[in-house]
Amino acid sequence: xxxxxxxxxxxxxxxxxxxxxxxxxxxxxxxxxxxxxxxxxxxxxxxxxxxxxxxxxxxxxxxxxxxxxxxxxxxxxxxxxxxxxxxxxxxxxxxxxxxxxxxxxxxxxxxxxxxxxxxxxxxxxxxxxxxxxxxxxxxxxxxxxxxxxxxxxxxxxxxxxxxxxxxxxxxxxxxxxxxxxxxxxxxxxxxxxxxxxxxxxxxxxxxxxxxxxxxxxxxxxxxxxxxxxxxxxxxxxxxxxxxxxxxxxxxxxxxxxxxxxxxxxxxxxxxxxxxxxxxxxxxxxxxxxxxxx
Length: 293
Hints:
Strand content: 15-25%
CATH architecture of one domain: 3-Layer(aba) Sandwich
Number of strands: 15
Strand order of the largest sheet: 3-2-1-4-5-7-12
CATH superfamily of one domain: NAD(P)-binding Rossmann-like Domain
Distance between the termini: 42 Å
Order of helices and strands: EHEHEEHEEHEEHEEEHEEHEHHEHH
CATH class of one domain: Alpha Beta
Structural class: alpha/beta
Shape: globular
Helix content: 25-40%
Radius of gyration: 19 Å
Number of helices: 11
Largest sheet: 7 strands, parallel
CATH topology of one domain: Rossmann fold
């Protein structure tokens, strides 16, 4: 494996690039001149293309030996036409990639009433956002079976890092659910997710799904309290569900309607990866350290 294509050149991709560019020739999709410049500076070869423009994707056929698919679906609909167009482009050449890793979401499981969930649990998505991810997963698995491509799926929960914390929400004093209405949440540090994706390229069997989560066991309100404490901010107010509906967006409310605790034993056993931030407490200590310096 010599050439890797990154689709979705966002935060997680930028964290994976230093490791990848030291070892491979890395191509990365970019929609703007600014993104192209940033990718070049990071050692990648930018490819001007847009997942919403089928014709722009024609140059991807046969380009890479492996693909890291980090791009989200569109913001509406129940399917993922972006993944559909990507797979059509990858399949149009004389050679297919050998491996493909996709970052999905743990939202595909739906509400599990706080139960411990492993990768064998059926997908029962409640939101259109999660249904779009299920559609992408199905397309990718079918692509792998048809073409002999080793496809791996990483189901990620709330991704956090020093630059991805709800500090503004805490400053606005947005409420969270009262203890009686709390939901179980799951988390992964963006650095660890980037490392998981890179390791999956080499160590994941074909068709394998992983819960890409850390070892934390936090209720949602406890997570916001921990962030507030780490950065010296007031803890958010707690409201009952009936009262909070009037205060928050439908998207935020959807996260407060699903409760599950993800099992990550398969991730650690098969990918043989030790998380750098095994709990949110570890990640927050690292994030708060520069602010305290």
